[in-house]
User: Fold this.
Amino acid sequence: MELRTLRYFVAVAEELHFGRAATRLHMSQPPLSRAIKQLEAEVGALLFARSPTGVTLTPVGTVLLDEARALLGHADRVRVRVSAAAGAATITIGILDDGTDPGVSRLAAAYRRSHPGIDIRIRETDLSDPTCGLRAGLVDVALTRAPFDETALTVRTLRADPVGALLRADDPLARRDGLRLAELSDRRWFRFPQGTDPVWQSYWSGGRPREGPVVRAVQECLQAVLWNGTVGLAPLGHDLSAELTVVPLTDMPPSRVVAAWNEGDTNPLIRSFIETATTAYRH
Assistant:
C-alpha cells in the first residue's frame, strides 16, 4: 500500500467525485480510477459506492480514510523533521488582509501543534494582491480568497462563503432580505487599484467596471461605505459595527477561501500545511 495511492484515495474521499479529485491531483481520471480499483483489490473490499452523480464511502472506506489521514500526516511530519534537522524547516505563509476568520485561528493552532520547532513566517498583504506575494516569490503558500488568475498555481478550496452587498445600516436597501446586482448599478462602489489582478477585480466589482474610491485594505472598504455611502461586496458572516450591514446577493457566486502555492513546489512543509488547512476548515 503506497503513500501515493493513499493520497489518491484521500482526495477522492474528500471530494466524493473522481473528476474533481483528478483535477485536484493534477492527473486524468482513468489512472486515478485504476489506482483506486487496485487499492480496493489490495484491501479486499469496496471503498466507494459508485453512482452516476458521484461516490460515497463504504464502511470500509470510512475506516481507511481515518487511517490514511493519520499515516499521511505522520509521513509528512517525518519529512518536516528531516528538513528541520538539515536546517531548512522554514515556511512563509501569505495571508490576505481579510479580517478575523476563525478558520485561520484553528489552522494556526493545529499547524503549530503538529510542527513544533518550525520557523513559521507570516506576510500579510492588502487586497490589491490576492496571491499574497506568491507570484513574486515572497511566500511559499498563500491563504487567500478566490477567484483570481490561477495560472501556474495550484489551488485548494477550503471553504465557500456567500457574499452580499456591504451597506450603511441606514441605507434604504439595508432592510431587504436579498438583493440583485442590478439594484446597485447606479451606486458608487469601492474598487481596487489599477493593475490589480483582473479576475479578482472583476469579481469584487460584480462583473463590470465601477466608479468610486480606490481601496487597498478591509478597513478602507468599511470606511468608504461608512463615510461616503459607497457600496461593495463582502463575505457574509463577518463581524461588523452596528452602522454597517451585509445584505445577501442572490445572483453572485460564492467567494472561496483557498490555499495556493506554485505548481511543482516540493517543499514538504507546503503539503503538510495544505492537509492541516483542509482539516481545520472542515470543522
